[in-house]
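It is worth pausing here to work through a concrete case rather than discussing structure prediction in the abstract. The textbook approach is simple: state the sequence, then state the predicted structure, then interpret. We follow exactly that order.
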Amino acid sequence: MNGKTVIDAHNISKVYNRETIPVYAVNNVHVHLERGEFTALVGPSGSGKTTLLNLIGGLDRADSGEILVNGIDITKLSGSKLIDFRLHNIGFVFQSFNLIPVLTARENVELIMHLQRMPRAARDQRVKQLFDEIQLSDKLNSRPAELSGGQQQRVAVARALASKPQFVLADEPTANLDSKSAANLLDIMLRLNQEEQITFLFSTHDQRVIERARRVITLVDGKITSDTAPVKVTST
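Step two, the predicted structure:
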């Protein structure tokens, strides 16, 4: 880590059933992440992990608090400005891959660069770099249905990195993968974290992710109950 703050969130709350019995999905949470962190957000089902991830990523709106991403309070951005901010600053990896089935692997990764109006030559260079990184250069023209689950998730990681974000939010990225595919995916993300100082924040139940994390934040009933390094840390 180099001490540069990437995420600085204060007093975040998300409440449902306001008119009857309020239910706090996230309850007055504080999160501070610096560049280069590799952090796992853990807790039982219903603890608020995915909600917190969605709030930090601007996919959902907090009911109170402020969320500074690269110094900008995203809670104050309008809908269109928030979409543009996500496009240029945040990478997302989802449990269900979320690849567009009619597009090739290359086209799925290129899509975000098209939206950014990146020139063709720059897109070609970035695609080559990313597919070399995820070790799928021979699958550029394959559609999602022609790829294994592990390969699809690696393409999803490449898509998340296409915009060169400073940080990536990953929601249960290994949940649908076998042990070998999960290990390969984690090795790729850990290497990118170490070599390019990309910040990763995971929502996960997976012990394989937790063991590789350098920091673990535990949520229970929407509140952070601990924030510490995992008991075991591995690099392979």
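Step three, interpretation. The mean pLDDT is 90. The two ends are 20 Å apart (CA to CA).
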